[in-house]
Amino acid sequence: MKRAFRKNDTFIPEKILKAPAALLLILTASSSSAAEGAEHVLAHTETLPYFLMLLASFFILQTIRIKKIKIREIPAVRAMEEAVGRSTEMGKPVLFITGLKPIPAVSAIAAVNILGEVASVCASYNTPIVSPHSNSFTMLAAQEEIREAFQKKNNFELINSSRIFFVTDSQFPFAASVNSITNELKPSAIFYMGTFYAESLILTEYGQSQGAVQIAGTDSVAQMPFFITSCDYLLLGEEFFTASAIIKNDEKELRTIAALDAAKIVTMVLLVYSFARSFL
Amino acid sequence: MLIIVLIGGILMIAQYFLNIPFLNSLYKKILDWSIVISIFALVIAIRSLLARQFKAIRERTEHIVLPLTTIVSFSAVVIIGLIWGVGEGGFVDTVYKKFLVPMQAAIFSLLAFYIASASYRAFRAKNFSSIVLLAAASIVIIGRIPLGDALADMTTVTLKSGPFALIDFPRWAEWILNVPNVGIKRAFAFGITIGIVFTSLKVIFGIERGYLK
User: Fold this and answer.
1) Are A211 and A95 spatial neighbours (Cβ–Cβ below 8 Å)?
2) Which residues of A touch B46 (CB under 8 A)?
3) Structural domain spans, chain B
4) What is the pLDDT of residues A147-184, one digit of tens each?
5) Is any Cβ of chain B less than 8 angstroms from the Cβ of A6?
6) How near does any CA of chain B get to the CA of A125, in Å?
7) Inter-chain residue contact A140 with B185, CB threshold 8 Å
8) Chain A residue with minimal CA distance to B13?
9) Which of A12, A19, A84, A109 has a 20 to 30 A CA-CA distance from A158?
10) Which of A25, A108, A112, A111 is nearest to A63 (CA)?
11) Which chain A residue has its CA at the smallest distance from B106's CA?
């Protein structure tokens, strides 16, 4: 009997995934030498083998059998529920900022995913969530994500799209508006997820002065020191991209984290190899 | 929808690694389309902004002056722009240069004070890690101000190999910034880049669908 397509299924069935996995392994091994002879057809030949290696690790970890994937505890992920709980106890809303990059950016997609998980906790605790945005694409995705999270928990009272709204796409006016909203609502938990620039410290220092628990996650390496200083918890580096998968505890998503770790190990081995080769 | 994402994603990867003119022109066309779509999305954004402001006025909130200011300035700029145009030297251009740019600079200038307050909190020597941070920050700060150069000049001795400063904060600061700092930044950059690639693959192959809602 034909199996129905479930929500958690990969779009490409596993059997089909196995063929590219094997093919990519061969390609990864041969691409360095092949690239030299095919420069008129190929572009960015220096990064091609590395990209194929990443692709291979992604496919392989999606297909091989792993009994149980153990994920280390990330304090920022654990603190998310505590922060929402604190807001509930204090009768204050949760503020969620999704950064300045719009939804086609991977950081915005990761931010909206985390927003969905935080909204789900808010729906369980009957706590409103407020989310000002600097882009309409991200705003629409956030509205749908929050609506779905509240509907799943049968909490229809707090579904209010006017709490998820567009402010401005300019950097510093956005920072000023968010600080104004923080001053007005006095949220007891603030989440900063996504790509931030110079406005990061303006936002987080003001949030800190209001006494809110602040949890951040970003792909902006230059802003990490500011977030570390001003926020209570930070999703460092790739933790930001894996946080929603860890909260969901979905097997397919956890396999991607395992693939990410495998790719990191291979990257480290390659780095040590190229470092050692420079002495030979 | 998932098929469009799959085909689009594979084509975009292919155009980066393959020198095929058709793929390159397709990539440029898709970029143009994304600009066109984002203009339509701006209408939704403006609707959201104005709806919130009108709601605040209807509910007569405590800070009613803020939504009023937003609506009046938004309407004024739109009307003036439609009547007199938005070209260089026009009224809208003047409003932008004389009002918006200084106000943005004012917000940006707050950063200096926030950096001072954040540094004060970060540099409190509570444990070993914060003592290391304090020491590194002190070296970098002294190395970047004239005092560092003056100390280096005062303590310079001449060796066989040439002049050598005994207390050389600028050189130590340079080392901290270029060696441990860059090393750690690159470690994060590696993790983030791999994270971006894997999230993109999750989107292309339909594991991640949150953006489709």
Assistant:
1) no
2) 166
3) 7-84, 123-208
4) 999 998 887 777 776 789 999 989 999 999 999 999 98
5) no
6) 22
7) no
8) A51
9) A109
10) A25
11) A172
Q: Count residue pairs from A and B with Cβ separation < 8 A.
A: 175
Structure tokens belonging to residue A175: 């920072």
- Is the pLDDT assigned to residue B167 strictly greater than 70? yes
Domains annotated on chain A, with CATH: 14-65+250-277 (no CATH), 75-247 (3.40.50)
Q: In this predicted structure, which of A119-128, A152-161, B86-95, B125-134 has the lowest mean pLDDT?
A: A152-161
A143 pLDDT higher than 80 = yes
Taking only the tens place, the pLDDT of each residue in A24-71 is 666 665 665 555 566 667 777 778 777 887 887 777 777 776 677 788
What's the CA gap between B132 and A36, in Å, rounded? 47
Q: What is the pLDDT of residue B96?
A: 87
B199 and A144 in contact by Cβ < 8 A?
no
Name which of A41, A144, A167 is nearest B49 (Cβ-Cβ). Answer: A167
Residue A82, chain B, CB below 8 Å: the answer is no
Chain B residues in contact with A38 by the CB 8 A cut-off are none
Does residue A13 carry a pLDDT above 60?
no
Give DSSP secondary structure letters for chain B: -HHHHHHHHHHHHHHHHB--HHHHHHHHHHHHHHHHHHHHHHHHHHHHHHHHHHHHHHTT-TTTHHHHHHHHHHHHHHHHHHHH---TTSHHHHHIIIIIHHHHHHHHHHHHHHHHHHHHHHT---SHHHHHHHHHHHHHHHHTSHHHHHHHHHTEEEETTEEEESS-HHHHHHHHHHTHHHHHHHHHHHHHHHHHHHHHHHHHTTS--GGG-
pLDDT tens for B24-67 read 899 899 889 888 888 888 888 899 889 989 988 998 777 788 88
